[in-house]
Specification:
It contains 27 helices and 12 strands. By secondary structure, the protein is α/β, with parallel strands linked by helices. Among the domains are: 288 residues, P-loop containing nucleotide triphosphate hydrolases (Rossmann fold), CATH 3.40.50; 47 residues. An 8-stranded mixed β-sheet has the order 5-12-11-6-10-7-9-8, with helices on both faces. The chain is flat.
């Protein structure tokens, strides 16, 4: 056994569950615990939710009592579909579905409602609508009528709703009667219209057929071959067109070279020079031009030779020049002849091309015109055939007119008439009561979560852990003064086996471990505000540590509102104030509570408690007392009201901060922890107080494990749960396996 285990009480070393409390307890919150958290919120405000549910139920009862009794009666009529439509064709399902929708629309039309109103008795109008028949509108009647088609059937259900049972049955039956009568009247009118239409359309068809046949005869006379026209003849006509196209193409190919030569001739004519004629490739291979060019070259050489021997006026030179001119003239003359020949050749080709083009166009126009006549002939022939078919069909319809009633129109067959209803269908009281109660409960739930959302106090361990990394020493359940007879500061003495006592055992275990780690025997206990239960925690923790066999000294460090003397019923006299001033020794102010527990009261309240603590040698005084005691617990004033606790924490260390769940403001805790960090004051741990079934995963776990030890407390006849009426745990159920 190591040193730390020897200094711990027996229950702390033998119970692994308690020893695990000293570790940082931060389990992950799973979905199951989240649901339990929501359930805990609802249980906490169960009275509010129940009250809202009762209010909703009462409201529903009052609202339902104000509603009039409503009756409904229904009649049904079968729609027998025709075997054929008005064109004599079979009726398909899509067509018939549209016909059913049409019948429903007719029943719900204002025209049908007006016809029903015309046949309503005056007495029913007065009793049902509260007005005379002439004042009843179609909209008023339609608001009481509903029409539906039976699933998978051809049956129409007409239902009437109203305050009078006899009237709704009468109106429903009357609606069916009027609907059937109007349908029969429409059938007769439609038959008459159809017959009249057939009598008009058949002669018109005869006239059209004669006109079309006359056109066909005229076409046959104009184009005799139109009757014998076939694909072979059409192919021959196309072949003639293709042959003309081929001839034109070959001509244009031959014309290409001629066109090029014609262009070169035009260039030579435009320049009108001997050089242009001699340089053009039109005359390069021409024998006559070549001979004349050679003769010109010889004369030019002869002229150059003569000019070297004679003067320019010499007859030989003049003769040679004259010969050169004659040769040039011959070249021009011969070139002109060649150009004229090329132009005539080009014009000849142009004439031939125009001829072929004209011939091709005429063939194409002839084929197109004939083909159009063919198409016209075929279209008219087809139209005549269609008109003849329609004519024959209408003649057959006229013959079958007597049997049209059986297949061209819907036949309505009434099935069930409306009976007088025995009881109202509305209001549905049971449904209204349930809905009202449900809405009230939902409103209560919304209020509950709104209250929780607006509550800015500390509610869960997670919120505390977000504010500070300091360890959580433990959780103190809600200590009811009624259950513990007002002795909340002596719970561990009065009821040793309760879960409250077990909570203080867990905190004392955490302090034992903290002392082993920090070697600090002195702990200053404070809270954010007054009435946070720090003195209750202070006293019970001291009693528990003393029961564990440790010598514990209690010091009432609240020099502004001391309570320790009254709680332990000690005599009034000198105390902590005088000890700080060194007016007395520690032996003179220490009161013996029991064998292991001693106490120093506050003594006389000083004028300035802060100055008294600040100017004293409190650190040396406490270190002297630590030689005599195992643990020293100092009850300090609230840290959110005075600075005395901060000063004690700064000088002595071991500051324990008590936070009351659902009371201590989160913002204040954040500010106070920031203030401690700024002043470099070490926060040894946190104690969560007044846990009443909180919905944190950690607190829920604590309730489980604390209840395991408190079962004997409840079985001794105490019928209230010290965890609070909102605790998640049923105190009569053994939760040992869960812990």
């Amino acid at each position: 056994m190591n040193k730390s285990e020897m200094n711990l009480p027996a229950f702390a070393t033998s119970n692994p569950m308690l020893s695990s409390v000293t570790e940082e307890f931060r389990p992950e919150v799973d979905s199951e615990m989240s649901l339990l958290s929501y359930w805990a919120i609802l249980r906490k405000h169960l009275i509010l939710v129940a009250f809202c549910g009762v209010v909703g139920a009462i409201t529903a009862v009052f609202y339902t009592s104000r509603l009039p009794n409503m009756y409904r009666a229904g009649a049904s009529v079968a729609v027998i579909k025709p075997t054929k439509n008005t064109q004599g064709l079979p009726v398909n399902q899509t067509y018939y579905s549209k016909r059913l929708s049409t019948q429903v629309a007719i029943l719900q039309s204002r025209a049908m409602a007006k016809k029903v109103i015309e046949r309503l008795p005056e007495a029913i109008c007065l009793s049902f609508f509260g007005r005379e028949r002439t004042d009843v509108t179609a909209g008023q009647l339609l608001r009481t009528i509903s029409v539906a088609v039976g699933d998978g059937t051809d049956i129409l259900y007409i239902t009437c709703r109203g305050k009078n049972a006899e009237n709704v049955a009468y109106i429903a039956n009357l609606y069916v009667d009027v609907f059937v009568d109007e349908n029969e009247r429409e059938i007769k009118n439609a038959q008459d219209k159809l017959l009249n239409w057939l009598k008009q359309v058949v002669p018109n068809l005869e006239k059209k057929i004669r006109e079309k046949r006359d056109i066909l005869i005229k076409l046959q006379q104009e184009y005799p071959e139109i009757r014998t026209y076939n694909l072979e003849k059409e192919g021959r006509a196309i072949s003639r067109v293709e042959a003309a196209k081929s001839d034109l193409y070959e001509l244009e190919r031959s014309m290409y070279d001629v066109k090029l030569r014609y262009g070169k001739c035009q260039e030579v004519k435009k320049k009108k020079s001997l050089e242009a004629i001699l340089s053009s490739d039109l005359f390069v291979q021409n024998a006559m031009i070549d001979d004349l060019q050679k003769k010109k070259f010889l004369y030019e050489n002869q002229l150059r030779d003569l000019k070297t021997r004679y003067k320019p006026a010499h007859p030989s030179i003049k003769k040679t020049i004259n010969n050169i001119a004659q040769v040039k003239k011959q070249i021009f003359h011969y070139a002109k002849r060649i150009i004229m020949q090329e132009e005539e050749k080009y014009e000849n080709f142009k004439s031939r091309r125009a001829y072929y083009q004209k011939k091709l166009k005429e063939l194409e126009e002839q084929n197109l015109a004939f083909h159009q006549k063919i198409l016209m002939y075929e279209d008219i022939n087809a139209e005549v055939a269609a008109l003849r078919d329609r004519y024959n069909d209408y003649r057959e319809k006229m013959k079958e007119y007597d049997s049209q009633r059986s297949y061209q129109f819907d036949i309505l067959n009434p099935i069930d008439s409306a009976g007088i209803p025995g009881r109202p269908f509305s209001p549905n009281r049971t449904q209204n009561y349930l809905v009202g109660t449900f809405l009230g409960v939902m409103l209560g739930v919304i209020f509950v979560f709104l209250i929780e959302f607006l509550d800015q106090s500390i509610k869960t361990v997670e919120e505390v852990q977000q504010l500070t990394p300091a360890r959580i020493m433990g959780f103190i359940p809600f200590i009811s003064p009624k259950i513990f007879m007002g002795k909340t500061t002596h719970v561990v003495e009065e009821k040793e086996n309760t879960n409250v006592a077990e909570a203080f055992r867990a905190i004392s275990t955490s302090i034992f471990f903290a002392e082993e780690q920090t070697k600090n025997k002195t702990f200053v206990i404070t809270s954010a505000l007054a009435q946070d239960g720090k003195t209750t925690i202070f006293c019970n923790l001291a009693l528990m540590m003393a029961k564990a066999g440790h010598k514990v000294l209690l010091i009432d460090g609240d020099l502004r509102r001391p309570r320790l003397r009254r709680l332990f019923e000690l005599p009034q006299g000198e105390g902590f104030t005088e000890l700080l001033r060194r007016d007395v020794s520690s032996e003179e102010v220490v009161h013996k509570i029991n064998e292991n527990l001693s106490c120093i009261t506050s003594g006389k309240i000083p004028a300035d408690p802060y100055e008294t603590i600040h100017n004293s040698h409190i650190k040396e005084l406490i270190r002297e007392l630590e030689h005599e005691y195992d643990y020293i617990l100092i009850d300090a004033p609230p840290i959110g009201i005075t600075t005395d606790a901060l000063l004690l924490g700064k000088k002595l260390g071991g500051l324990l901060f008590a936070i009351t769940v659902h009371r201590t403001p989160k913002r204040m805790v954040k500010q106070l922890i920031h203030r401690m960090q700024t002043l470099d004051i070490e926060l040894s741990g946190l104690i969560l107080n007044d846990v009443k079934g909180s919905y944190s995963s950690q607190l829920s776990y604590y309730n489980y494990y604390g209840l395991y030890y408190s079962k004997s407390y409840y079985t001794r006849g105490l019928n209230k749960n010290p965890l609070g009426r909102n605790s998640k745990i049923n105190p009569l159920v053994d939760n040992t396996k869960k812990s």
